[in-house]
Description:
Elements: E1 4-10, H1 21-26, E2 29-35, E3 51-54, H2 69-82, E4 87-90, H3 92-100, E5 105-116, E6 119-120, E7 137-145, E8 152-156, E9 164-166, E10 171-174, H4 185-191, H5 193-199, H6 203-231
Amino acid sequence: MTVKTVQAIRHIGFEDLGSFAAPLREAGYDIEYIDVAERDPATLDPLGADLLVVLGGPIAVYDHDAYPVVTEEIGLLRARLAADRPTLGICLGAQLMAAALGARVYPGPAKEIGWSALDLSDTASPNPLAALRDVPVLHWHGDTFDLPEGSTLLASTALCTNQAFSRGPNVLGLQFHPELLGARFEHWLLGHANELASAGIDPITLRRDAQRYADDLETAGAAMLTDWLSYLEH
């Protein structure tokens, strides 16, 4: 099998590829993490990796003055998306992709933190999220974005209309977290303890729901990613 490369841009240690790592390796990808606190994204070749994954994090796209890395990542994504190179964004990553495609990113009506299933859109071609149908996924965001021009809406929830979008087979943005590993969920609760407290969200409920839903999400999320990888046009 020809070895392919995936660069995963990581903003915070525990928000990694999670359950996506195994199917990526099975599909022949070598994984390289780019920790933006240590490595400037502006030094990356935007077209270098066979697949670029931009992961989640606790900053906002409009925090560019406080966190200049936001501007650098948008520049990287703008060049990559213009070339239609395979790109996947999760949560903050999807928001950065939307911004790079010219869409507005802004605070949503309320924080959406918890587990619930998606309403999948009827799409002309097969919906790449089909494996997630009726599977509760993890939501953990306060911001949302307008649907980028030329993109297809793939999924919604009652609180957040734009949960996922694609632009052709190579570009996929996911506002939610399908990559969560249940065994790592305590890192999320501890790492985001201040956010949970300020939002009045009970970690006990989140933990209980993770114990209930995470195994099914790991299986469905890996299947979804494997399906999407099979459609890529390199």
